[in-house]
């Protein structure tokens, strides 16, 4: 249930538009109240006063519980709520509520070796695979979706951080231990709680934010050879990896999630240069571009796409191409019109999120990639897709767009809702990345043991 629009108008009376999203088919019901102002004035005033009093006494720091019953369809209640929320939306409207079907998630409390021990390395909660940390944290901080009673839970979140064991040699995450760590966590929960065994884990949720997701390997051939571990095959995997074609690493119930990017770092960058500011770089890419990529078991890094970009466009005045790491690269993205997002070893890339949230049009070069949260982000409206085979024609393709529909794409891209959907916050905000995950789970309620029980009764 959610209210989308409330605004007092200049006319006498309040113009209240409410949308009630119902369980079955999201029926929309709109209420307009223009008349009866004199009568409502007092009712409003009274409910307002009552509301502030009661909420004050209920709790100071907890969000006000807004359950379905709270509305109780009493008409005098509706306008008063709407009015209050137009006064201060952020403090009163609970963000996780709304169209989420009263969904409940139980978060297992595992020994710290499975998760929080890794946070002793600060990088663990900030690097591009850190959605495994961010989703866990957001769920722990939520007191509407999260339940402490596993018997009323629709889903069970198993918080295991597998991407934080950074190799001392090259600094990349060593995920060789991922399978053992997760398997050990499942061993633990299945012996101590009854919930895993009753569904074989099909209402249990894991994050696999590494290159080839639930296959837990950075190289595709090895990932495919290893496959998804048997013990995860019935569960729901939140993974960054996704393609539109059949692939062994997504043959499991899954939700494609965005790679992690710190909202704080984004905010800092945008304070210095707003999304709609001046963009003096036409085409930007910073990252690994090998002139002679190595043949690793029959595959070349980035399928040689980045090699072509470097060979063809280094020195072209429209292109700003850099091969070395630079900590301040966000300030370059916010100065750029087009940001190239070519595949690496895996099709997805952190640049997708970085470009979108910093207002640079992502140019996706990764055939068949499946992008996160298509219900919330209309990717075809905010990005460009260039086929891998056409990478040598990037120059004319981008020139053409710049001369035709660039401003339309930028206008779509700069919509704050798009930015919000791709960022994970410490506290779930309506429409943010964790909220989108929860929404995706709410479409999988057929896997919930509790719901199936209810429907049998
Ligand atoms: C709304 O409430 C929040 C938290 O109580 C506060 O930080 C914010 O300034 C308020 N906004 C307005 C517009 O009053
Ligand atoms: C971290 O990774 C290394 C290399 O893969 C591995 O030897 C080690 O066991 C891992 N550490 C833990 C605690 O799993
Ligand atoms: C779940 O099943 C496993 C394997 O059959 C068994 O060892 C374990 O004791 C069961 N867990 C519970 C809580 O009954
Ligand atoms: C790449 O290496 C594989 C063996 O690992 C070989 O079969 C293949 O011919 C090589 N490809 C090229 C283009 O060199
Ligand atoms: C912009 O134009 C390109 C072709 O030049 C097209 O592929 C793309 O879909 C268009 N995008 C929008 C949002 O109109």
TrEMBL record:
The keyword Glycosyltransferase applies. It is found in: Golgi apparatus membrane. GO terms for cellular component: Golgi membrane. GO terms for biological process: glucuronoxylan biosynthetic process. Coiled coil: none annotated. GO terms for molecular function: glycosyltransferase activity. Keywords: Glycosyltransferase, Golgi apparatus, Membrane, Signal-anchor, Transferase, Transmembrane, Transmembrane helix. It is a single-pass type II membrane protein. It comes from the Eukaryota. InterPro entries: Exostosin, Exostosin_GT47. The chain crosses the membrane at residues 39-58. Residues 101-399 form the Exostosin GT47 domain. Belongs to the glycosyltransferase 47 family. This is Exostosin GT47 domain-containing protein. It comes from Citrus unshiu.
């Amino acid at each position: 249930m959610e209210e989308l629009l409330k605004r007092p108008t200049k006319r006498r009376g309040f113009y209240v538009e409410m949308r009630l999203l119902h369980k079955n088919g999201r029926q929309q019901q709109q209420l307009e109240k223009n008349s009866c102002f004199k009568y409502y004035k007092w009712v409003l005033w009274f409910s307002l006063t009552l509301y502030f009093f009661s909420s004050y006494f209920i709790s100071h720091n907890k969000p006000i519980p807004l359950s379905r019953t709270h509305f109780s369809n009493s008409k005098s209640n509706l306008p008063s709520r709407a009015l209050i929320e137009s006064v201060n939306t952020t403090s009163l409207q609970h963000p996780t509520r709304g169209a989420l079907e009263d969904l409940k998630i139980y978060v297992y409390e595992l020994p710290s070796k499975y998760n929080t021990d890794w946070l002793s390395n600060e990088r663990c909660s900030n690097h591009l695979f850190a959605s495994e940390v961010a989703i866990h944290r957001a769920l722990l901080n939520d007191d509407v979706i999260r339940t402490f009673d596993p018997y009323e839970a629709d889903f069970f979140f198993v918080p295991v951080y597998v991407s934080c064991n950074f190799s001392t040699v090259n600094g990349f995450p060593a995920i060789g231990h991922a399978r053992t760590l997760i398997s050990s966590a499942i061993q633990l929960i299945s012996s101590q709680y009854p919930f895993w065994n009753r569904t074989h884990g099909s209402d249990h949720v894991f994050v696999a934010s590494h290159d080839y997701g639930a296959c837990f390997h950075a190289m595709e051939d090895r990932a495919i050879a290893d496959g998804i571990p048997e013990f995860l095959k019935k569960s729901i995997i939140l993974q960054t990896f996704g393609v539109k074609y059949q692939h062994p690493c997504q043959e499991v119930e899954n939700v494609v999630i965005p790679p992690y990017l710190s909202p704080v770092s984004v905010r800092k960058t945008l304070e210095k240069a707003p999304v709609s500011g001046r963009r003096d770089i036409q085409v930007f890419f910073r990252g690994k571009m090998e002139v002679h990529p190595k043949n690793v078991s029959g595959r070349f890094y980035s399928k040689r796409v980045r090699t072509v970009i470097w060979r063809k466009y280094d020195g072209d005045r429209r292109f700003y191409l850099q091969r070395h790491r630079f900590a301040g690269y966000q300030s370059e993205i916010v100065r750029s019109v087009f940001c190239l997002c070519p595949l690496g070893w895996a099709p997805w890339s952190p640049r997708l999120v970085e470009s979108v949230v910093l207002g640079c049009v992502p140019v996706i070069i990764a055939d068949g990639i499946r992008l996160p949260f298509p219900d919330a982000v209309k990717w075809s409206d905010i990005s460009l897709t260039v086929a891998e085979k056409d990478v040598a024609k990037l120059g004319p393709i981008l020139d053409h767009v710049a001369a035709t529909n660039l401003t339309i794409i930028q206008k779509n891209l700069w919509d704050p809702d798009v930015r919000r959907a791709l960022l994970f916050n410490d506290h779930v905000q309506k429409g943010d990345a964790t909220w989108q995950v929860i929404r995706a789970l709410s479409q999988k309620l057929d896997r919930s043991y509790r719901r199936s029980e209810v429907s049998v009764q």
